[in-house]
Amino acid sequence: MTLSIIAQMTVSGSLMGLVYALIAYGFQLTYATSKSVNFGQGELVMVSAFVSLTLITLGLPYWLVVLGGLFFGALLGLFVERAGVRLALEQRSEGWILLTIILGLLFFSVAENVWGRDDRPFPTPISQQPIHILAVDVTPVELSVAVGVFAIMGAIEIFKRQTLLGKAFDAVSADRDAGELMGISATQTVKLSYALSGVVAAVAGILVSPITTVGPTMASALVLKAFSVAVVAGLESGFGVVVVGMFLGALESIASFYLGSGWREAPGLVLLILALAIRPTGVFGKTLIRKV
Amino acid sequence: MWKRLLLIRGAELLMFAVLLALPLAVQNNYLLGLLTLLSIYGILLIGLDVTVGYLGQVNLAQAAFLGIGAYTAGLFVTKLGAGFLVSALAATAVATALGALLALPALRLEGPQFALATLSFTALNVTVLNEMEWLTGGAQGLSLSRPPLFGMSLSARGFYWLCMALFALVWLAMRNLLASQWGRAFEALRDSPIATDAMGVGTYRHKVAGFALGSALGGLAGALYAFNFQYLQPQAFVYELTVILLLGVVLGGRKSLWGAFVGATLVALLPNLLSNRTLFEFMSGAGFLFALFAAIRGLLRKTMRPFQAIAPVVATGVLVVGGLLVSNTEDWRKAIFALMLFSVVVGLPEGLMGFAAKFLSRLFRIPDPPPPAPSQLDGVLPPRRAMSGGPLLEIRDLKRHFGGVRALDGLSTTVREGHIHGLIGPNGSGKSTLVNVVSGLYTPSAGEVLLRGQPLPRGSLFETARTGVARTFQNLQLFTGMTALENIMVAMRGNYRRSRNLPLVLLGLGRTEEKQAQADALALLEFVGLGADWRTPAKDLTYGAQRFLEIARAVACKPAVLILDEPAAGLSHPDMRRQMEIIGRVHERGMTILLIEHHMDVVSELCNVVTVLDGGKVIAEGTPGEVKRHPKVIEAYLGEVEAGEAAAETPAPVPAT
Predict the structure, then answer these.
(1) Do B414 and B295 reside in the same domain of the chain?
(2) What is the pTM for the complete model shown?
(3) Which of A82, A93, B83, B426 has its CA 20 to 30 A from that of B56?
(4) Residues 48..87 of B with a Cβ closer than 8 Å to A: which?
(5) Hey, what's the torsion of the CAs at A29, A34, A36, A40, to 10 degrees?
(6) What is the pLDDT of residue B190?
């Protein structure tokens, strides 16, 4: 009995953990090219979800809604890059941390006033009826999360490995100055990474909305856990965020079952602080050699 | 001198006098509440400025420490019946301890990771306060009544005076701290953490201490917050408050006590600003006009990038237009913060006070402080003692591998006391790795380094520097934002006991030593010929002067061994001569020097002994003359040629001048 509960918790928790992993992957994309991350990423998730919901209520077919949501996510990502990140990077300051927090606050306020403060259901053509597989109940919606996460991450990884633009992306990640000397525009690459990161956030929003409902605060808890995942896994390894994300998701769903749902966030935060104490570059991160 | 003191101190005195007297002049409970809040936020923001301004890290945990302080004080009052003093002290102590506990792991990180860690701490804090219902009352909140001070119950006005007095004390203590070696260490580690360690100052411990101090002030402010509102709720200490506090610090101006004051005023007034429509329209309009004016000026004079000029105009413009369209500004509170903050961060990165300080010092023509009188050089850098010539630094079978690359492959040599020991070798021969291992930047894979027969600490720049090995850097690692004099003063840590003792510093008892330190540092600056540039920020010095300053700074550590890593790299010929002359004079004062150099003439002229490296091993050692004729050296430098032929082609050393 207990075993089957633990199995159930592990499966549904780790499926949820994939969403954290996906948002954390969005951090990695921008960190690779510009050593910056969008602290307002949660708001990107939320606003994209709201925009998709609006498209649904307009009566658009689901595939068009998804496309529209992704496109909007990319636009938001580009806006964040232009307004919040580029200037700070030019000045080689860490002002981008503040500026992305500020933009997140702005998006939050706009969403709260445009769409209201209440949580709203997100209709989806995918069935919510649980299927019984090996003593564990899984809904197709939950499975769609896994499919979506792996699809988008896979697509981006293939893009990075197989296309010339992707190679440019990798080159700027490895050495910004050397990339510029080879005629790759670092600014354009950073833009691209923010657009991709916005797309990833939108995917996360669309995938998770049927489960969590849509509301201004829907992403604040999500993004906090994504931060934990990104720091624990390290900001370099895409494989790492998937592993850590699923682990964290399972851990917190078990913790909330045994300790009460209020403690849901605690394991991630404790894990984060522990990981920092033991391995500051992340479990899957590379140890840096300081050069002088 | 006096004018400067009078203006700066006078302004502080005037401000506190007005603030203290205000409740006597105006009997208004609402105003009193605002003023009380202002003093509490003042303390809180001064604490936050330590990490955000001085350590240069985005700290998102200050709201959590406010909450921790508030709840600690609240619980001491309600559960233990403690008095004012005890509960305030307990709040400060708990916040300090938790601050240090968070800082220990978190400050090993930089930039975004640190911000993430502090953000998570804030979230964890809210979770714990909410969920530990048996202690904190959870979401229900915690009610308390203001405890008596020394048995006397405090009226609202009495409490205000107490808060304001505490704010003034914190202000004074902080000013003393920032003017001391501590303040310099904070600034130094932000500019170059590596050099801060290499000067034996200790980056990590200063960061942790700074963060703990900021948290302590957060805890103190928390106790006052609890006594002021007498009702606590976990929801009051969430992420949003942290953002507002950051807004205060950034808008007021980082690295400035006045900035914290302006920021605190703003944070205390924000709710009013939003509820009073006319005030809001006036403020946003003024902000828009200011941004517009600054943008036109900045664009015409080309002092601003277009984005930096235009973005604040757009943001404040949205604020003005939005203010006219929106029916209820309270609903748009967050957007309004965001637009205000955005304009300031982009347009006025130094904050209101950073901007005002420049403007005011021009307006009142505040003179620069005069130079201190330099000390006698013999007192700072004692003349040559009797030199034994015995082994001082022994390197034994040292190895350092990077993956499969054997950068150092079993290297042994001995540096004798009073020598200038040259270290040469072709590119990639392991010179830099050797310096980095000896100075503690890298941990050796095997082998050991002894100083006077005692093993040096492994893999810690800081510990090694403390043991008596100072170094310069091939790629300069000056504290770029600090003046030449301050650069040297950072390194002169050991001589001044009082200026290290935190309680004494906070009380302002380190001043005489501070003057002594200035005079000593100036003597060293004159020693390298930079006496006239004492007030110049290191980044504005010429390249040559920066190299001289690096040497003076390392000498200021009074090391047993001074390691100079390519001190002549990139110097023009006249500067190189001057550099050699400086090294010669440092040596005359009895300093043992390990000199890594590319220029053969520098090595031949200065060194007593030269060690030649290739492939991570010693291939020759001897006097410069012997080494130059050594066949293996010729082979390493010139490839395989006839030995006699190559020796003849070696250019003759430049004759000494």
Answers:
(1) no
(2) 0.86
(3) A82
(4) 56, 58
(5) -60
(6) 85
